[in-house]
Amino acid sequence: MTYVPEVVLVTNKMITAKLQKDIESFADSHDIVLSLMPEDLFFERSPLAGCHVVAVPSIDNIHDYLDLAARRKFSLGVIPVTGQSRLREWLNLPVDIDDAVALAFESVHTPIELLRCNGEITLGMVTLGTNPFIDGRGKAFLNRNRSLLERLAFLFAVAWQSILSLFRIHPFPVTLTLGVGPPVKTAITGMVALENDIQGPAARLLASNLGMENGFINALFIAPKSICAYLSFLKAGLLPKNQSLSKLPNAVSFVLVSSIVVELKESCDYFIDGRRRNAQTLVMAVEPAAASVNVLPVTQPHKELKEITRTDKLPRGEDQLKFISNALPLFTHAPESDFKELFIQLRGVARPHSTFVTLMVLSAVVASLGLFLSSPAVIIGAMVLAPLMSPIISLAMALLRQDRHLLLQSLKTIGIGMCLAMITAALVTLFVPVDRITSEMAGRLQPNLLDMGVAIASGIAGAYAYVREDVAKSVSGVAIAVALVPPLCVSGIGMGWMDWEVFSGAMLLFLTNLVGISLTAALTFLVLGFAPLERARKGLMLSATLMALIAIPLSVAMWEITTHWQLEKSLSGLKLLVENQQVQLTDLQIRVHGDTTVVLADMLTDRMLNTDELRLLKTKLEAHAGESLQLQLTPRIQF
User: Fold this and answer.
1) How far is it, in rounded angstroms, from Cα 534 to Cα 527?
2) Tens digits of per-residue pLDDT, 569-587?
3) CA dihedral 129, 132, 133, 139 (to 10 degrees)
4) Which element (helix H / strand E) includes 152?
5) What is the CATH number assigned to the segment(s) 336-553?
6) What is the CATH T-level fold of the domain 572-637, as seen in this structure?
7) pTM of the model
8) What are the two backbone dihedrals, phi and then psi, of residue 342, each rounded to the nearest 5 degrees?
9) What fold, for 6-108?
């Protein structure tokens, strides 16, 4: 290891008496001629080119030392003192003070690049706007010297402040010129341009695209298109980790370019290594091999890098920029390119074409026969055939976007499908010599809030399946889950029998499915950004009102079913003493026909009960239940 023969040592208040003595001792032991120069004199009359300067700078004036080294072409050795961890990290210097002194006097100097922002040298990062978690200003609170409790408390405080400010976040318009590319008009909430801060939260969001001395500016542009997107970004920022560019949050865009120009509409505060500045335009550029500094060799593998401009996530176009101009909306607004094909598809399925009519008739025939056979497998086959889910999803989009033409077309198609299903089922009823309610029919005569829950979940799944091509094959599964055609066919059977209770009960179930799917599918489209909330409010309010009205009878039915379940539980296994004869009810079921509660059960006794004993049993059961009961008991004699 060789050292320079002559060195200019800049003295200042950062050099303690002990440190100066150690430096002078090192110079004497290696035959180095040491010249002392006060710091104020150094900045007034800096050395000539070719000199080697050793300094113990502060975190505030290291930029001035590097600027002089770059302009006057002298080499620089830097000795960091205790507490200057950022300086060591930025310049890749040793932690041990003796190693730092030895490195500062070495004769091998490394040309390093410098990032300038509006002419000022940036060692760590340039930040603009709001960048929670990743701008590095709170990095000191997250280092390992802090206790786990302190770090968690800091993270919680930042997260809480970020959440409180959600509705006060205002994207600001900017014009970006990235490298030699054309200007891009967009809107952002923040920016972080990285130079040597490759260990901080912002750097850990990325994979191996970052590095020192790569000749490029590593920059992140934070541009959430909605509050939901911003929350997703906050989640990623809480525990940043290396990941590929394709897996960055949708609110983050990454560029790797040699220069960046950020033009603002008005002057704005920004920070260079934590120092506040104010300007209307930020001009950032990298100067390769600008200064010769004694630093440790870079351990990262060298690789050729090309410019990267991953700006596809930035908001573009007048419509989208206007959508977020005042404040972030709750949900992301999808650009027209995202839903053009979907609209074409939904308009196509909203029309009652011949295939729709054929499938509706066939599915109604299959469903009706399955209901009479009480065969779940046959009914499931009818659900798969039924095309009724498609116009309902179209109806949801029409409600969301206030599309009158699509709304009328969807309602027309749904009405035609309903009529075809009920008329077909009524006709099948005329040819089937069965006039009793099967178990599959009975299951669709008393809808309750649980059925609404099925409709809500199915509406979300249906809308999502139409939007995402990778789950489009799940539409048939959604149709099976919600079972639109069977309740229509039960209503048709009720028409064939002229039974109002059968018709109305099944029709209520179908309306529950129709309204539930329409509302939740519209809400799903809203979350996915297919309309602004202001435009969707009227349609959503209408759907919500209809759902609230339907929920009234469903709630009553749910209450009655809950009451019957409790009654069934209390009567199951009940043992009563009737005229010295013990009676036990097993395999008990509660059914309701109109206003009559029917108890079906096996009656276990040692002998047959006479009429008076049966009347007494009925009286005791009614007293236990608190209501009038009709008993249908099957006697079982135990010996």
Assistant:
1) 13
2) 888 877 888 888 888 888 8
3) 60
4) helix 148-164
5) 1.20.1080
6) Alpha-Beta Plaits (3.30.70)
7) 0.62
8) -65, -40
9) Rossmann fold (3.40.50)
